[in-house]
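Dear Dr. H.,

I hope your travels went smoothly. While you were away I took the liberty of generating a structure for the chain from your last submission, since the lab meeting agenda had it listed for discussion. I wanted you to have the full record in hand beforehand rather than looking at slides cold. The sequence, exactly as received, is reproduced here:
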Amino acid sequence: MRIAANLSLLFAELPLRERIVAAGAAGFDGVEIQFPYELPAIVLKEALERAGLPLVLINLPAGDLMRGGAGLAAVPARQDEFDAALEQALSYAAMTRPACVNVLPGRLAEGVDRAQALATLAGNLRRTAEAFRLLGIGVLVEAINPLDMPGFLINTPQQLDELLRAVAHPNCLAQYDLYHMARQGIDPVAGIERLAGRIGHVQFADCPGRGTPGSGGLDFAAALAALRASGYRGWLGRSTGRGGGHGGGTGLVGRVARQPFMTRLAARAGRSIRCGCGRAAWPGRAPGRRTASVRAGSVLVATGPRRSSR
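The corresponding predicted structure, in token form, is as follows:
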């Protein structure tokens, strides 16, 4: 599994273009950016090409969500605004080519009942999934804990499961955040098992504190083993908060997700571990970057292209 830096949280002391360079220097394999639209698409594309890093994930514009509002995706009265956000993201993604685009469900708006909000959200996700399918880009939707974001519409794996079933589109999968599950007392492994085969992207940070893996009590070895058992071969997005350190390949998850630590984990778990390419998780997708397989004892471990030390 390859590790991406969430540049909306990591290296936040730097301008966005410089964060891309810093992520490469820190050993990350790719980057994700919540809302990259401050940079013209061509500028971001050129910065990524210079750094030799793929863009793994962006969010659809979400209106006033990050300022405490309801957002766009589940608000019937804001359909025109959502449509404009979708057009903006399609245009931006056509140039920058992210692997995935995440649609934030938002909060339950005043005067809108939950059933109406969910129906609006499902319809918007279905349209978005179809629109991005034509570009070969996956669409995600995530659950966020209600402690950090009160009123958020989708909180649990069960709610995410029900939403994905309502959307019923092969190009719409779950974005699964280990931190958001643990923050509300949900076992991340149980959530992985419930959503097995429908997880398109994973984010991680320790809990409590949203810090560096190892700073809290989240069992990352168990979570990674559950992901592997579920068939997940995609990206791991590091979404630690500010002050959580920046190392890409030297942190706990980096060590567990790469050889020889993955080999040791496999030996403890009694199973072989094989990591693949992020896009392989999506139905009908051709594989992305090639990986090289190496023997480590009796366990086959896939590794990405060798990165020169910086």
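Two observations you may find useful: Residues 114-133 form the longest helix (20 residues). The beta strands are 3-6, 30-33, 55-59, 100-103, 138-142, 172-177, 199-204, 236-238, 292-296, 299-303.

With kind regards,
E. W.
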